[in-house]
Amino acid sequence: MRSKMRSETRPEVQAFVALGGNLGDAQATVRWAMDQLANLPHTRLLARSSLYRSAPVDASGPDFINAVVELVTRLSAPALLAALQQLEHLAGRERPYRNAPRTLDLDLLLFGAACISSPALTVPHPRMAQRAFVLLPLAEIAPQSVSPAQLQAVSGQTLSRIPAQCI
């Protein structure tokens, strides 16, 4: 009861979450995850990017389907991370080795203006500025969060937006 009361009185925080997957029906899984994020307690989904296709980075397997969502939440960053990991588990995520192909990957990119560095969580996400599959969807829904220099730095990475009629 105490944690419920705390999250209800906690101020709302804007958060951005990256979604990706490259096993099974990745488009359906990413859309499912977006819907699940919209239903988290004390959380509202404000925006969804388009879906994007990208080749694996530092990994193997089929192409990834990627997107970013904007949330406002009263959950703490650790509670939001736990909810993200629970959704990954529900989607059948396994972690047999680092950067293994996956059904679903959910990364907390930004949590308000917080800078968090703990063994379990680092925010802002430490590699987001190196990844076009994060920056382009983020720039689509929150252009103020991505600088032209950041976009230029990843301009050589191949990424394609999936037209809405193909989703």
How is this structure best described in words?
- With 167 residues, the chain is an alpha+beta fold.
- It has a single domain, classed as 7,8-Dihydro-6-hydroxymethylpterin-pyrophosphokinase HPPK (Alpha-Beta Plaits).
- It contains five helices and eight strands; from the N terminus they run αβαβββαβββααβ.
- The protein has helices at residues 2-9, 26-38, 77-90, 132-141, 148-153; strands at residues 13-21, 43-48, 52-54, 64-73, 105-111, 116-117, 122-123, 159-161.
- The strands form two sheets. Strands 1, 2, 3, 4, 5 and 8 form a six-stranded antiparallel beta sheet that branches.
- A hairpin with a 4-residue loop joins strand 6 and strand 7.
- The longest helix is centred in the middle third of the chain and has 14 residues, at 77-90.
- The protein is globular.
- The termini are far apart.
Nearest-angstrom radius of gyration?
Answer: 15 Å
Principal-axes geometry comes out as: globular
The proportion of residues in beta strands is 25-35%
The total domain count is 1
